[in-house]
Amino acid sequence: MALVDPDVTNRKLDHEIELWNEHADEYRRRGWLLLERRGLRVDVGFLAEIPLGPQSLTAMTACVRFDFADYDLSPPSVEFIDPITGEYATPIVPAVMPTDEGPRNMLVGSHPETDRPFFCVPGVRQYHDHPQHSGDSWLLHRANREGSLVGICDRIWRSMARSVLGLRIGLMTLPAATGQPGQMEFQVVTGDIDALLAGIPILPGAQASQ
Amino acid sequence: MPKTENNIEIIVVVSGQSERIRVNTHQTLEHLAREALQRSGNEGQAPSEWELRDAGGGLLDQSARIDSTSIVAGTTLFLNPKAGAGGAR
After folding, report:
1. Domain range for residue B44?
2. A111 touches chain B (CB under 8 A)
């Protein structure tokens, strides 16, 4: 049962969409695609350019479903989905962000209530519902609009799309007795793109896709 | 009287909400952030707890003067709270 009048929530979500539309061109250039709004649910995809020599491949490295039920008494739910089927899915890249305590992966494998991966940042319902963050109430972050559609999209984009560095291809030969010549592995690698552009050497491993 | 060409209007998107801020280019980006926070209803918040970024997502040094950057009249910048706790190492 909704705690907030759905009419009120709908109007708040209308406002979030209006704010998106004010800078829609900018967000499009960043690779943000507002795929669908259905009631209080909004699906957003994030495109990244994966360099392949002189060319690049555009890939959707993250796709999420927002659920604004009871917004903004409650923060929006944010869950990862497959952009084609719309089913819940595990993203192919981590979500590493710099923090005062060093880089942290904001993509956590399994939420105790959903058993699905989630984006563990303030402003996201799954963060505030997690027992480890019970002392960090949503109401402490609400005024900052940390649960806004654009605000959360900005964090997902920076950590899961803008951070894409390239594709790592691994080849391993296997003993002849296996009957196979070898195995190939493909990983999308993310890292500190700003450090890379500034000429600061970053570890060749960076953060590989899961 | 200050030269008017030193005063430019910059768009700052604060947690998704646009604010048009008129500043003197001799001012620092921290001043711009503070003005944007005040106009957006976040007055009293420390700019150091927020991140100012350009359209490409690059983090800007708030101690820099506006006229030492590539920011010109009509530029859009983005101001969002720092990530805070969460995630795993």
Report:
1. 7-81
2. no
